[in-house]
Each structure stands twice: as structure tokens, then as C-alpha cells.
């Protein structure tokens, strides 16, 4: 059983009300002193919480006070200590993104769900794709492309007709967004250890932005993406409702 709990909530009134209720019942400690963090909000807030606390090596248990709540557990005000004690842990690694913009500046960011490239003008993007130093596609004309983790494969990746990946699979999904040429190319499955590089062709004429979990870099020249095994996000789920079950269930809805 956890005795030191940190309660974090999004700005939504319903989440703030829930936090006040839990703090009144169970007390509250700073995240740095906690044995477990309870995040109250939606998936976006859960992602921000995981990023903000990744240096603490503390598990995070989410409760849905948002919309979809794929990374969250069902909300209930009773039996929280028991639920935390029975929760099952999933460990996921983020993606590391390195970007050079057209001014020659280097930017770095981490993404738990996906790194996406999106056209930023009226014309389609032209991308060249290299995997582990080997040219794999000399030209992809598209609205964009993304690399998704298994945990993020049901998010933007799935909306772009990419595959849903089992949580234990050591693979990444490389998915095209509205590909024009090659017209039927839908992407590829890559080993988790792969390093993917996108070079933007005609970057001045066809500007492209890169996004890592809502951290956006405009006017890019190239992006390199790889999994970051040194960072481990520990997420707690109620028994029988973990990421693996959710990934399977999502394919039958």
C-alpha cells in the first residue's frame, strides 16, 4: 500500500474538484516525496505528467477527468488505496527527436506517443526516408509522416491508418499521412532499435514542421528519431485494464 501520494490535476474544473476531494481524504505530498503520483485529467495531461516526472522513477496512476482517457483508469472516489495496491505496472520508453531547422539550429524533444512531420503550407511535403543510415525511400510526397511507439499506436498513428502495435512488441510504426506518391505506400514496421531520419526536400518551397507530443518545431530541414531506452515511464492500470488489453480491444470496436 502506498502511504505518500502526490495528486496532480489538469486545469479543468472537474479535475480540480476531484483533486480537492482526494487531498482532503488522503493528504498530499510533493511529487519528489511521493511513492506514487495520481494524475487527474485526460490523456494530454497524463502525457505532460509523465514528461514532467520522468526523472523521479515514480509510478503514475491516471484517473480520467478528460475525454478519451486511453492512458487513464476509470474515475471513482472510493477505494483508491486498494486500487493503487492492486494496480499493474506497464513500462514504456519514449522516442527521442533531434531536429535541425532551416536556420541551422538543433532542437531535441521526447515523445511518448509519436513524432510526426506535417506540411506547413499549401503544397504537399517531399520527404526522403533513411533507416539506420540506409536510404529506404528516396521520395515520399504526402501531407506528413510519423513514427509511433506501441503505446501511441492507437492515437494519431491509428487515425492515419497505421497499425496498432502490441505493447510488448519491440517495434515502431512508420506511417504516412495522406501519401500521394507512392500512392499506396502506407508505411513500415521497424525494430525498436532503428534510427529513422527524414530529410525535407525543397524545404523553402514546401515547409514542414515536426511535433513531439505537442512540442512543435517549424521550418525544419531534417529530423532523426530513435527510441530512448534510458528513460522508463511507469504507468499503473487497474487489473485487466492495462495497455495490452486496451490495444487489443481497440481493434474490435
TrEMBL record:
The keyword NAD applies. It catalyses: NAD(+) + ATP = ADP + NADP(+) + H(+). It is found in: Cytoplasm. NAD(+) binds at residues 43-44, 48, 113-114, 143, 151, 154-159, 178. The keyword Nucleotide-binding applies. GO terms for cellular component: cytoplasm. InterPro entries: ATP-NAD_kinase_N, ATP-NAD_kinase_PpnK-typ_C, NAD/diacylglycerol_kinase_sf, NADK. Its cofactor is a divalent metal cation. Its EC number is 2.7.1.23. Involved in the regulation of the intracellular balance of NAD and NADP, and is a key enzyme in the biosynthesis of NADP. Catalyzes specifically the phosphorylation on 2'-hydroxyl of the adenosine moiety of NAD to yield NADP. Belongs to the NAD kinase family. This is NAD kinase. It comes from Pukyongiella litopenaei.
Amino acid at each position: 500500500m502506498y502511504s505518500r501520494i502526490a495528486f496532480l490535476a489538469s486545469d479543468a474544473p472537474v479535475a480540480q474538484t476531484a483533486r480537492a476531494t482526494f487531498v482532503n481524504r488522503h493528504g498530499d505530498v510533493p511529487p519528489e516525496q511521493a511513492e506514487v503520483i495520481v494524475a487527474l485529467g485526460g490523456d494530454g495531461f497524463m502525457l505532460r505528467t509523465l514528461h514532467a516526472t520522468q526523472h523521479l522513477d515514480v509510478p503514475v496512476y491516471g484517473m480520467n477527468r478528460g475525454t478519451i482517457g486511453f492512458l487513464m483508469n476509470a474515475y471513482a472516489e472510493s477505494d483508491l488505496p486498494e486500487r493503487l495496491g492492486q494496480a499493474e505496472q506497464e513500462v514504456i520508453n519514449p522516442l527521442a527527436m533531434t531536429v535541425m531547422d532551416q536556420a541551422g539550429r538543433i532542437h531535441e524533444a521526447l515523445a511518448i506517443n509519436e513524432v510526426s512531420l506535417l506540411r506547413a503550407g499549401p503544397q504537399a511535403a517531399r520527404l526522403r526516408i533513411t533507416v539506420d543510415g540506409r536510404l529506404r525511400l528516396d521520395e515520399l510526397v504526402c501531407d506528413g509522416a510519423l513514427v509511433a511507439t506501441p503505446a501511441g499506436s492507437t492515437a494519431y498513428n491509428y487515425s492515419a491508418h497505421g497499425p496498432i502495435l502490441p505493447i510488448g512488441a519491440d517495434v515502431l510504426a512508420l506511417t504516412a499521412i495522406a501519401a500521394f506518391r507512392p500512392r499506396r505506400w502506407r508505411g513500415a514496421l521497424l525494430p525498436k532499435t532503428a534510427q529513422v531520419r527524414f530529410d525535407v526536400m525543397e524545404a523553402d518551397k514546401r515547409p514542414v514542421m515536426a511535433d513531439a507530443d505537442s512540442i512543435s518545431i517549424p521550418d525544419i530541414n531534417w529530423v532523426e528519431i530513435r527510441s530512448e531506452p534510458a528513460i522508463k515511464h511507469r504507468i499503473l492500470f487497474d487489473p485487466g485494464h492495462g495497455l495490452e488489453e486496451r490495444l487489443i480491444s481497440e481493434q474490435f470496436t
